[in-house]
Specification:
By secondary structure, the chain is of the alpha/beta class. Helices cover about 60% and strands about 5% of the residues. The strands form 4 sheets. A 5-stranded parallel β-sheet has the order 7-8-9-6-10, with helices on both faces. It has a 3-stranded antiparallel β-sheet with strand order 1-2-3, with no helix packed on it. The longest helix is centred in the first third of the chain and has 27 residues.
Amino acid sequence: MGGTGAAGLHVRLLGPVRAFNGESEIDLGATGPRSLFAMLAMRANTTLTLDELVDGLWGEAPPKSAQGGVYTYVSTLRKALEPGRERRDQPRVLTGTRAGYSLLLPPRAVDAARCEQAAAEGLRRWSADDFAGALAQCDLALSEWEGSPLGRAVGPFAEAERSRLELLRLQVQECRGAALIETGAAGSAVASLSALAAGNPLRERSHELLMLALHRTGQQAEALEVYQRVREQLAGELGIEPGPALRQLHGRVLAGDRPAVSRTEAAARLVPAQLPHDVRDFIGRDDKVERLRKLCAAAAGSSGGGTAVLATVDGAAGSGKTAFAIHVAHDIADQFPDGQLFLDLRGFDPRLPPVTTEEALRHLLHGLSRDAQVLTADVATQAAIYRSLLAGRRVLVVLDNARSAEQVRPLLPGAQGCLVLVTSRNRLSGLAIRDGATRIGISVLRPTESLELLRRVLGADQVDAEVDMARELAASCGHLPLALRIAAEHIVGSDHRGLADMVDELRAERDRLDVLAAPDDESSIVRAVFSWTYHALSPEERRAFRLLGLHPGVEVDAPQAAALFGTGTADARRQLDCLTRWNLLDQVGRDRYRFHDLVRTYAAECAEQEEPHATAQAAVERMLRWYLRSVVTAREVLAPGLGGIDVASPETGLPPAILQTYDGAINWVGERLSTLVELVSLAADRGFDHIAARFATALGALCHCVSRWTDWLRVTEIGQAAARRTGDRLSQARLHNDAGVVHYFLGGEDEAVSCHRAAVAILADLSDPSGPDDPQDQATVANLAVAYSMMGRHLDSIPMLEDALRIARRQGNEFVEASVTENLGVVLSGLNRHAEAIEYGQRCVGLLRETGSKHMLGHGLNQLGSSCLRAGRVDEAIAHLGAALDVWRGLGDQWGQANGMRSLAKALDRAGRTDSAHRLVTEARAIMRESGYLAADHHGIQGTVM
């Protein structure tokens, strides 16, 4: 469908690249912007990504300024195309989105598109014996030409398109000559065919048509002379004899026969039907199937002629690429009445090398012709014959398991009307850039699709009776079709193994690849299928893949990978992009990449089996130190003034994550906390106890920020064990304090007091006799004071808090001061000293608004609202508690929201608004149930610091 950017805009590409608005030519600028315009015009109304534009303009080694160059060219073109547009107005012609750029043009605005449409229709009419119609369409196509195509445009894209368009013109000129001969105008054809043959001295089809035109006009000697000339040229330059069509025509001219125009350069045509059997129980991919159907409709053509279509289907090993391509091919086969070709290119076969161009052409030609000389010709001749055999025909070509764009490119038809489907584990971006391929990425199944696949293989009754087990089985298989089918077949093939048994076998992540194996079929062993891709990587890429297997998280970004690899960030990003192109990683955001679960397991296996222990340890240590520095950076932003943590030299050489704002830091923590917890465990498991203890200490404040109490408790346990092994007494004290805070939120008062006492006892041994001046030590003392208060020991707690408050104020530490005043408010409210409690609460909230600590502000507002409620100031309580709930909602903190709802519900109930209170309690319970907090009998302890 055409765009609506500029109704009067039309473009000339079949000659110098030019654009016109009505009769006025638009100045497209120098070579750079003109080349970009040519790319966009050739793909009008289609979005081209920034990477595609860079590759198309500069190729595989673009300058560092390439992306900036594209932006500059876009700006130049926008000014030229819409000179009157105000800066605040959105562009209507050359538009841009996050996906890339698109040139919006009216239908039939580009001469190259009109030429291709007329050419396709001419070839179609020629195939249907409508020679007059073919002649008219060929004349229409040739009338669009003004010279060498894409003149003044440069770059790989322009070069490839220029060659393709020149070949198209040659085919149209030949079709026109053949149509002239068949319509009785052979004399008119002689002049044009003579020029065509002279300009293409090795092209047999042009010489064949010239011989025929000469023969039809009674010039037999001249026709034989043409044959002798082309035979000498072929022998002298290529060392070959003329092909069968030319030789047969020569014989008939000698015999004085009246030969007809041959449709191809081969003597015998076949209608191939080579598609493998369709896949049983094919599931899902509905949107992608529909997309391919639309591409098929474009290829099959309409009354206006078809368009050449190339589609690549890529995805990870075992994702079902071949099954998808074969299923769709069967679905659309009837729209390609001239046949369906299928070829496994063996791009990743572990036993046999990839199919060569010569082998591929021989196989494809065998499906199209039985002429022995065609099948034994050299590669160049076979390629030409292959394209000729497909000219004017509607053939579906499926090229399975391709390794690279270079392996595929010689097998692409030169004619219109065919659809080529290429499957690969590699993204084959070169085919999209140079050859206009449409990329269709195949990922894992959706959870609902996985269940449906299991229903079809195992039976709906069995799956529906154990649907939770079926869901876990699908998740353990990572929703990968190959893994799901193997697991299901194990169940079907055994009298003693059910869904629950299979799930139990898959629960041990390290054993999953052993379970997901079919011993009698190597191609159906998940590990083996992954290994074929792995061994196709370069040594550098294999090393990167192995080292990523040491990372415990499901996601990684370029700086983290750089620490693992021991490289710079740019180099790490390049390696991550390479693995993404091989579909071993998925890019899930800007600079963020994710392993499929089973691929991650395989990467970990490769690291364990192939990476030397010393280099693996060094990589893990680099990664841990980078993360520790980043966690400390986040802690300084989210809990400023809480006290320093030694990040443990030596440095990694890479800067930590850039976290300058509260929102940026808390989002970074929220997205990665599960990984950070696993990194603490990894540090301890790998023997890096000093790092594990410091990491756990730094991570405590971050767990508090996002209310992840059970994660925090696990971190304190791992960190404590590591600190004891290294004799790190300060980390032991701080982690005892952290454990106390966590136990409060989980409802364990006795455990909390015990942990805080242990912390204070250690600090007493370590501290200066004059008192604890370290901010974190003050926080520990303040937390012990709250613990005493909850056990009724108010007289012990208040002096401790007042001392901590004086020290915090003397040091100007507003964060710790706010924390201590919050705790004083809790204790004083419990003693019914309401005015003082509210005053401290107000002071706390004021300080927190200044520091910008949102999670602490949520706690502070909740404490202030609770103090007001105990004082009977219900309306004030509702206002403060409502504000606290708004804070928690803004943070997306589920525990905070549920706790805030319960507190606000109490106040609303006290005010007689029971319906509102009931709704809040119900909503809070739902949140707690969904988030897994329901088991925690938390007491809403607002008065805590880290």
